[in-house]
Amino acid sequence: MIPSQRIVDLSIGISVLGWASAGTWSNLGQRPVAVLLATSLLHFIVGVLFLVRSRAEKEGDLRTCLIAIPAVLVGGWVFRFAPNHWNVTSQILFVMGGGLAILSFAFLGRCFAILPAIRGTVTRGPFSFIRHPAYLGELAMVAACVLAVPPNWGQPVVLVLASMLFVARIRVEERLLLSGDAYRSYCRKVRWRLVPLVW
Q1: 105-163 pLDDT, tens digit each
Q2: Do strands 117-118 and 58-59 pair parallel, antiparallel, or not at all (unpaired)?
Q3: CB neighbours of 175 closer than 8 A, spacing ≥ 6?
Q4: Which residues pair with 118 in a beta bridge?
Q5: What ranges make up the beta strands (E) of the chain?
Q6: Angle at 68 between CA 65 and CA 70, to 5 degrees
Q7: CA separation (Å) from 144 to 38, 59, 65, 109, 121?
């Protein structure tokens, strides 16, 4: 990794680690504790992985990154508008989704990336069942935020839009990843991208 890229990764990692602690303390009493803990743990592991991740073998072009970015941001946007008081079902879904995302990131380890890039192929853990378990976890967290809001006509719209953003992200990411032999071999073994028996 060239020095400038390493400096960017270190800066982002330290910033995210700061969010992990500051976000928890600043939201105490305003969000359920389980939701805050899941969010903080997710930020923590993302921060750590930025600090240790390996150099990209190949990175996505500008168009690929621009298509992926909305799916990166939608979770934070939806969380911001979630209410202070969550029902039990939405809390459970959020923690489960967060747990899956955290576990997936842990298995990714130094292959972790936010924007499309080739940093290695992981086939163990949740990646032995679906190709993008972290995205499934993140999408579950988005759904939990939406379901925490009292029922209204906008909820299905937000869920469909969020799902479409993740599908677009997966498509452009896989277009890049399939340029490598290891990922093509992995796809022959693990057929499903996001939801087993569906897609």
Answers
A1: 999 999 998 889 999 999 999 999 999 999 999 999 999 999 998 888 888 999 999 99
A2: antiparallel
A3: 64
A4: 58
A5: 58-59, 117-118
A6: 120
A7: 12, 32, 26, 26, 29
